[in-house]
Amino acid sequence: MITVSRLLRQPATLVCLAFLLLLVVAAVAAPWLAPYDPSAVNVTGRLEGPSAAHWLGTDELGRDQLSRLIYGTRIALRASVQAVGLALVLGVPAGLVIGYFGGWWDRVAMRVVDAVSSIPALLLAFGVIALLGRGLTNAMLGVSVIFAIQLLRLTRGMVLAERELPYVDAARVLGLSAPRIMFGQILPNVAGPLIVQSSIYLGFAQLFEAMLSFLGLGVDVGDASWGQMLDRSRAYVGDQPWLPVFPGLAIMLTVLAFNLIGDGLRDAMSGARAPAPTWKPPPVRLVPAEPTRALLSVRSLTVAFPGAATVVEDVSFDIAEGEVFGLVGESGSGKTMTALALAGLLPPPGAVTQGSVRLAGRELLGLPDHELAALRGPEIGMIFQDPQSALSPVHTIGRQLIEPLRTHEGLSRRAALDRAAELLTLVGVPDARRRLGDHPHQFSGGMAQRVVIARALAAGPRLLIADEPTTALDVTVQCQVLDLLLDLRERFGMTILLITHDLGVVADVCDRVAVMRAGRIVEQAPVGGLFTTPEHPYTAALLAASGGAHA
Amino acid sequence: MRKLILSRLVALPPMLLLVSVVVFLLTRVGVDPTRQMLGEGASEAQRAALRQQLGYDQPLVVQFGSWLGQVFRGDLGTSFFTQQPIVSSLAERLPVTLAMVAGGTLLAIAVGVPAGIWGALRAGSAIDRMITAVTSAGLAMPGFWLALLLMLFFAVELRWFPVLGFTRFADGPGMWAYGLVLPCVALGLHSAAVIARQTRGAMAETLRAPYVRALRAVGTPRRRIVYRYALRNAMVPILTAAGHEVVVLLAVSFVVERVFAIPGTGTLILDAVVRNDVPVLQGGIVLVACLVVLINLAVDVGYGLLDPKARPQ
């Protein structure tokens, strides 16, 4: 139902549905709508251009183009619906059965499927025509087989995933028979993508009908089909250039309508798409702030997603040089958004709407991205929660480690690689030189996080923002990575903003803490004070919930 | 890498065998060539004699065995009608088909990939919406209709190109190539729409990936992120689309041949369909299926080159 109401809010889809309705009406009511008999020959009025008598002109036998076009909708719709209908009847049940039972049958069936799908649909149609004789129905049979095979593949793939889900187990426990599970339980759950694909295949089928008729393998010479009209126009375009225009437009618009409806259905089922990132920060209302001696000074920072919630509201804090400052709160409290806002890396459409962020006295908000980019690395470093996703899967570690060295220090490739190996050794990756040539998937989570830390430290940042740096790691590795961070802080003289939901970590490593809840800071205190005498009831609740974290 | 190629090559023969079974069944079962060759007037004795001569009187398995044996020796038989060896007629027709497919594919990539990147970088802007609209229209446009319109405009109206009349390669490579420009453009623009669409989607996806944010967090310049990292990651889906498009172009080129009256593989196969010339049809479909299998092999190897996880460890 949500899908339908979403669909009804897509103007393009509505226009396409209306167009298809028009085609259906044209096909059904062709004898009443067509101004002339589509096969009435008129030798004196042949190859005319569009006129009042013949809106779309006449062909080489003087037949009215508009009437032929209207009758052509019958062939077009019949061919598409036949081809896709048959494909659904053949492909979907086969895919359900093969996917559900799997095993040996699956392996054999998929090999055959691979073999048949290496014959393009057009050639399979040729083969079927050779076998069964000419005619549109036979020709579309070959196309249908290819559609069926693709639907089989799609269905099987989805069933393989579905049959592992709890509802299928539940149905088995309830004693439902296999056919009832397949058709009653699984099919409704995989129907969405099948409907989308069918709509797109209806368009493809139209293209194939046109191609086959154009090649003279489709309809009989007497019948009017758009593809056949195009075929006949070839010989006469020199005399009447309008001839190929309208049948082609009819084909294109029909295919377009099916495609757009498919797209609309997909969007309606999946919901809105996330927008791509933008490099241009939207305007910010800067809040005037008095100078402080802190390294990082944040005032009244507010982050909002247009049309949605304000995720960070009026956040202010200072971090002194050399301090380890903790920002704690449960997930969704705005910690990460705060961190991303500081570095100018908010995911669009999220944006800082007001506030002030000063690093060593310099205002960061409102800086153009290329100026911020120059600060990211030597001034601000950042570590993310999931180290694997912070590394490009198709590039070597070495290639990714030397990025900041080449950008900020202007090192040559060779020098940068030497330095990268040193950094890797420093963060505790054994056999660093050789590992520079490895790809991220060859590293464990803990090792990958060390790589990401090495990259963040490469340009020697004054402030390191570590966003849940240990959350995605095994418990045993968590301590090692934290110890490494503290060790590096002393070595590099860094200031650290540590974002975490783990109060135990805070107690261990932080000097001061701010507690965030629902986008606001509810309490800010030195670590000792916060743990012994929490002022805000939420902090107390958080402490109570984490139980023995302090010990 | 060598391991990957080897494993794919090992999988090739069983695949080709299965393909040949499918093609054989498709074109042989239930087909009686004598009706076509001798006409309706021939006596049953004459038919039986011809069937025996062609080997159609034997059990299917035997027929398949001898046909496969022939194919292995590089002999696809001779045409029922022209009596020409099929291998040599295919060899004569294939180059022009391959030239059209190659030209079309190159054009499709050259136009589609930059257009897709452009759209992804300006997602939601007027330019992006315009590119999306043009690609949607391109996807829906029948390739042969575009070919017809191109011919109408550039050859019939402007007279920049010869209307019909194909120049054989041997008679002048320059004119041969000139005659293939419009067919390649018609094929390429259609596929360009598909590739642009795939590229735009893949780039929009990779530009949202966490590693892009992580690269920005160390100050990597935008240009390098887009072209060296995001594009490189987006190339796997782009390759999938391109591989698929090569196969589509191969089939659509058969139709486009008819527009420009180019005597390519498609015309040969189409004539065989019309005349029910079974050996030529068989040979043609086997050739195309083998080309498709090889294209898929190339795409698989491409995955290995692009994605380290696709390489056997």
TrEMBL record, chain A:
Give membrane topology per the record.
Multi-pass membrane protein; Peripheral membrane protein
Listed GO molecular functions? ATP binding; ATP hydrolysis activity
Please tell me one Gene Ontology term that the record gives under cellular component: plasma membrane
The UniProt record lists the ABC transmembrane type-1 domain at 73-262
- Name a Pfam family for this protein: OppC_N
Localization, UniProt = Cell membrane; Membrane
Which InterPro entries does the record cross-reference, listed alphabetically?
AAA+_ATPase (IPR003593), ABC_Ni/Peptide_Import (IPR050388), ABC_transporter-like_ATP-bd (IPR003439), ABC_transporter-like_CS (IPR017871), MetI-like (IPR000515), MetI-like_sf (IPR035906), OppC_N (IPR025966), P-loop_NTPase (IPR027417)
| Transmembrane feature ranges | 83-105, 112-133
- SUPFAM superfamilies, alphabetically? MetI-like, P-loop containing nucleoside triphosphate hydrolases
Q: Residue ranges of the ABC transporter domain? A: 296-543
Instruction: Show the Gene3D superfamilies listed in the entry.
Output: MetI-like, P-loop containing nucleotide triphosphate hydrolases
Enumerate the Gene Ontology biological process terms. transmembrane transport
| Alphabetical UniProt keywords | ATP-binding, Cell membrane, Membrane, Nucleotide-binding, Transmembrane, Transmembrane helix, Transport
Q: Which PANTHER family match?
A: DIPEPTIDE TRANSPORT ATP-BINDING PROTEIN DPPD, OLIGOPEPTIDE TRANSPORT ATP-BINDING PROTEIN APPD
What family does the database annotate?
Belongs to the binding-protein-dependent transport system permease family. Belongs to the ABC transporter superfamily.
State the protein's name. Peptide/nickel transport system permease protein
- The organism is Nonomuraea endophytica
Automatic annotation (TrEMBL), chain B:
SUPFAM superfamilies xrefs = MetI-like (SSF161098)
Family indicated by similarity: Belongs to the binding-protein-dependent transport system permease family.
Q: Where are the transmembrane segments?
A: 12-31, 98-121, 133-156, 176-196, 234-256, 285-306
Q: Tell me yes or no: is Acetylation among this UniProt entry's keywords.
A: no
First and last residue of the signal peptide: none
Taxonomically, the superkingdom here is: Bacteria
User: CDD domains annotated for this entry?
Assistant: TM_PBP2
Could you list this entry's UniProt keywords, alphabetically sorted: Cell membrane, Membrane, Transmembrane, Transmembrane helix, Transport
This chain belongs to which protein, by name? Peptide/nickel transport system permease protein
Q: Where in the cell is it found?
A: Cell membrane
Membrane topology listed for this record: Multi-pass membrane protein
Recorded source organism is: Nonomuraea endophytica
Q: Which residues does the UniProt record annotate as the domain ABC transmembrane type-1?
A: 94-303
- Pfam families tied to this protein: BPD_transp_1, BPD_transp_1_N
Keyword Membrane tagged: yes
Q: Which GO terms describe its molecular function?
A: dipeptide transmembrane transporter activity
Q: Which GO terms describe its cellular component?
A: plasma membrane
The record's annotation in InterPro entries points to: BPD_transp_1_N (IPR045621), MetI-like (IPR000515), MetI-like_sf (IPR035906)
Main location class: membrane
